[in-house]
């Protein structure tokens, strides 16, 4: 069990600090008002490795009223969570957490209780977002020739066949707007 220190940051959100398995101190600031505004009562804490290289990262989940829990299985998935867990999307209605690990070429899917819903190999996935109609997950990643946005069916977690290539999106912060 991870000991999680919580510090309220008035007007900002919360700061969460904990020690990684290797003894490194990790701090994450979440903007809770943004999560609540978009209907999320869950909190995903992304644990970043504090040194560069092929250090295994982590994904720690905490549902309201429950203790924080760091995913540790299945090992073939967790062992590919290299460098940092860069982007996370939460969909409470599906009990779905999707996370990207670019150095491990990994897009992983979890339930809030920390059990795996699967994973897929994606070249350097950066960002992940849920469309406004909650039908698709959009993933920014690399291909052999250009950055791409690929759409996955949010129910089956499989590619829809829709993509934008080149997307010119190279970052991890994807925002979905109604324009």
How would you sum up this structure, described in words?
With 179 residues, the protein is mainly beta. The chain has a domain at 5-124. It is 6% helix and 42% strand. It contains two helices and 14 strands. The protein has helices at 32-37, 75-78, and strands at 5-9, 13-19, 25-30, 43-47, 58-62, 69-70, 87-91, 96-101, 106-110, 116-121, 128-130, 136-142, 147-153, 159-164. The strands form four sheets. Strands 7-8-9-10 form a four-stranded antiparallel β-sheet, with no helix packed on it. The N and C termini lie far apart (44 Å).
How many β strands by DSSP? 14
For the terminal residues, how far apart are their CA atoms? Answer: 44 Å
Largest sheet: 4 strands, antiparallel
Mean pLDDT: 79
Low-pLDDT stretches: 31-54
SS field, number of helical segments: 2
Q: Report the radius of gyration as a whole number of Å.
A: 16 Å
Structural class: mainly beta
SSE run: EEEHEEEHEEEEEEEE
Strand content: 35-45%
Shape: globular
Across the major sheet, the strand order is 7-8-9-10
Helix content: under 10%
Key features?
179 residues; mainly beta; four-stranded antiparallel sheet; 2 helices; 42% strand; globular
Summarize the model shown.
The protein is mostly beta strands.
Write the layout of secondary structure elements.
Elements: E1 5-9, E2 13-19, E3 25-30, H1 32-37, E4 43-47, E5 58-62, E6 69-70, H2 75-78, E7 87-91, E8 96-101, E9 106-110, E10 116-121, E11 128-130, E12 136-142, E13 147-153, E14 159-164
Antiparallel strand pairs: 1-2, 2-3, 4-5, 5-6, 7-8, 8-9, 9-10, 11-12, 12-13, 13-14
